[in-house]
Specification:
Two copies of one chain form a homodimer. Chain A is of the alpha/beta class. Chain A is 31% helix and 18% strand. Chain A contains 16 helices and 19 strands. In chain A, the strands form four sheets. In chain A, strands 10-11-14-15-16-17-18-19 form an eight-stranded parallel β-barrel, surrounded by six helices. Chain A has a seven-stranded mixed beta sheet with strand order 1-9-6-7-5-3-4, with helices on one face. In chain A, strand 15, helix 8 and strand 16 form a beta-alpha-beta unit. In chain A, helix 1 packs parallel to helix 2, helix 3 runs parallel beside helix 5 and helix 7 crosses helix 8. The two termini of chain A are 21 Å apart. In chain A, 51% of the residues are buried. Chains A and B meet through helix 13 of A and helix 13 of B.
């Protein structure tokens, strides 16, 4: 899960992990990261700790798991081939990311017990991997999840936990919604009150919080080790009450509004007529871009109810230039499709009723239709957490649609992929997030990875039910959705 | 849960929470803590925020929840009376602890949704409490849980999480196992290497960790707000490799052993012939006692395989004097019953085969029979986490026994109560802890609270299955034990 593109059971005996098993890996830090992760899974599953051998096969290889890099291995940057034979497992990929995804597949072939960090065996079990051949590559390059850390703040450890969980399903983007009316979550040294004042609130009146620059870098590094690119978002011109409350000068009237802890939207906007607004944006974008190795910077742009259409377009185009000037590609919510966008810019489609014509003209598209993949929507009328302004979204509804059919007339290749946001108005803990994200996040991951023709709800739901022991081992607070035969847990 | 001592459905309409509802509370910080907690539960369940009125009833009380303190209210310090009528809920108790337990009972009468911190209602539900009368008091004064933070370290937030969960079931002691072979977890300024060196290890080679004095005080304060007394344990003379590895001088041979990250027991012991050993113990006990408001200090005493019986007894008696000299009552594992104990000392029975005769002579007893209430024992042979050296412990086995019958001949009144330890050799996260603790912790809580004659497995298991929605709302990673009809979750 997600289902590989091609998978064939092979004749012959399964591969058995033995005390002689070694992991062979090419030189370099990223492959070593992947090999170390694989070693941890194998050790936890089997009690054995294979030696990691760098860049050369042992002379008499009795039992080898080989991670190999070969520019010609696969046509996809993130694809991999996995062959399992009696004495040899081979993962071939053209990039370390491909190796990482091959290892996630091996991880899922190991017993769920491999997910426990501290399991002890009195009598370690014999661990085997079935003989098979897999040729795999993702359907889309953008396989995203978004976490709203603004409405409620989530700690560094909580964000890392979410990275752990999305990486298992080969999701490769984590979009962090870092600022909204209720809180500003990233330290910006040139505007220190953004966090000093704007960071100290959240929905419901809790203490809020923010990431220091070092903490943000820690998150970025952790994501990198899981082949996840952080996409930071500073929402503007709307959803900015936390910034406006921090600096009176940013307000047209020159007075700062009170901190906001409710859940309305659309009431706040940066003052588009003030020069200081663009100085502010330039500072924030510059500092954020400097901390962010990934090529993307999300500038929001949604739900602005206080500007004329022309003011809005002008603003977006000016912000786009600022983002470009600091070397990043702008991402914006689908309202920005009304502006004149650069060929590098990316539109994130979220409103089910957004103009399909404007969307079709976008240079690039990410698909996050709220009535399909907003993970904070309730499962059904009885779900306690979450909202339902877009729809109730049972698991099947999140799974059963075709991203390529959503925006008729979109330029071929313009759809970069799919992203599942989770907004946190009703969520204050990672356990709350997990309850809404699982099982639907797995559905979205497969939507983004597996070719449309191979996805079938009937077979997906069987594989989904089989995840229960692994999710239990990971301690995931998942919703046991009705209609799915959840495997018993031990 | 635990089942109250006496509960009667009453005639008449249920109590309805309305915008006019007020909470009336006596003056003082502890009652206000309880009222504030009650307010939070009501707000989350109903969307309404009752006013808290201190020390006087409103003139025209349309709808009141009254927390009242009355020295004559109940004969038990921790008991309470709860009456629910159409326009008035009254909790009467002789102490704030009794009010707290009354509020836990109200909490369990509220919908499970009250456990969500950030739930938002579009249309808040009408919340009612059924008309009833409860007269309740605990069977035992010692209703304990123990968390082993030595084998794997658990953060302050994780310990607070455990306090949250045990308090729901009226458990009132949290015993923290703060030092063992694999790690020393509390800052002791006079012996700084205990944490600098001894804190940096844990089972399996992880980073370990420790609590600063301020963090420990934070835990103690959080426990106090939940009417839980922290019982700190420094295990000695055995289980001391972390201390011995920190200071060469503490070793008979004068050289420090290596840090230990395995799971053997019995190999380490303080050098009972060295004066510095008692200087060390006196410093540690003095500093720990000064940080600990509760009357208990646990000195361990278990599994010493390297001393003669006489050396062991002499050591225990000397330590007992040190503990007494710093104003605390010594608690020790059941091996200490071989020594001459002070009338204030407490023996914690854990070995199923411990001498019942020695136990019967103990001044005070806490019952933690490993084959009944060691929560780290597996549920059955298929359980992945945990150990099984004492027994597999299905839920019924943890519930179906009588503490008063365990030690024949024990002096009347000497059994203070029951404690459920959880050892962390195989547990590295609070989610792992939860999987073994729930549902068995609820069984132990009822064992310690409810009179023996009112406890029946057949009815208990029905109430247990009904906890599933609340546990889901709390994000508890609980084991869905077979044979129990777990209520569906939303």
């Amino acid at each position: 899960m997600p289902l590989p593109q091609r998978i064939e059971a092979a004749a012959g005996a399964p591969f058995t992990v033995t005390p002689q098993t070694v992991i062979v890996v090419p030189a370099g830090a990223p492959p070593m990261t992947v090999a170390t992760q694989l070693l941890a899974f194998i050790r936890r599953a089997s009690g054995l700790s294979p030696e990691i051998v760098v860049a050369r096969e042992p002379a008499q290889p009795a039992s080898v798991i080989a991670l190999t890099l070969d520019p010609a291995a696969t046509s996809s940057d993130e694809g991999y081939d996995l062959t399992i034979e009696a004495a040899r497992v081979t993962v071939r990929a053209s990039t370390p990311a491909g190796l990482f995804y091959g290892v996630q597949t091996i991880r899922q072939l190991l017993p769920a017990a491999a997910e426990y960090e501290a399991l002890l065996y009195r009598k370690p079990p014999t661990v085997t991997l079935p003989a098979l051949r897999i040729a795999d590559a993702p359907r889309f390059e953008w396989r995203g999840a978004m976490l709203d850390v603004a409405r409620h703040f989530f700690s560094v450890d909580e964000v890392k936990r979410y990275i752990d969980l999305i990486a298992l399903y080969k999701i490769n983007r984590l979009h962090l919604h870092l600022a909204d009316d209720q809180g500003w979550r990233l330290e910006i040294p040139s505007w220190p009150d953004l966090t000093r004042k704007g960071g100290a609130s959240e929905v419901g009146g809790g203490p809020g919080g923010f990431y220091t620059r070092d903490q943000y870098k820690d998150i970025v590094g952790y994501a990198e080790a899981h082949f996840v690119t952080i996409v930071p978002e500073i929402d503007m011109p709307g959803h900015t009450n936390a910034a406006l409350a921090s600096y009176a000068d940013l307000n047209c009237k020159g007075t700062a509004p009170a901190p906001y802890t409710g859940t309305d939207v659309g009431f706040s906007a940066l003052c588009v007529d003030l020069d200081v607004t663009y100085k502010f944006i330039d500072d924030v974008v510059r500092e954020l871009a400097a901390l962010t190795p990934g090529p993307y910077l999300h500038a929001g742009g949604d739900e602005v109810k206080t500007l004329t259409p022309e003011q809005y377009r002008t603003f977006v185009e000016r912000v786009q230039k600022i983002v470009e000037s600091h070397g990043k590609r702008m991402v914006g919510w689908d309202e920005v499709s009304a502006a004149a966008l650069l060929p590098t810019s990316i539109v994130q489609h979220w409103r089910p009723d957004a103009s399909k014509q404007l969307l079709a003209g976008s240079p690039h598209l990410i698909l996050s239709p709220a009535d399909r993949v907003y993970l904070d929507m309730k499962y059904d009328d009885s779900t306690l957490l979450g909202l339902n302004w877009a729809a109730n979204i049972p698991v099947q509804r999140s799974y059963d649609w075709d991203p390529d059919a959503l925006v008729p007339g979109a330029r071929p290749g313009s759809v970069l992929g799919v992203e599942a946001p989770i907004w946190s108005e009703t969520l204050s803990t990672m356990r709350d997030v997990e309850y809404l994200a699982f099982p639907r996040l797995a559905a979205v991951a497969e939507l983004a990875w597996t070719p449309q023709g191979q996805r079938r709800w009937d077979t997906f739901k069987v594989r989904l039910g089989a995840q229960a022991p692994r999710w239990t081992a990971l301690g995931i607070n998942f919703f046991r959705a009705p209609g799915i035969d959840w495997a018993p847990t031990r």
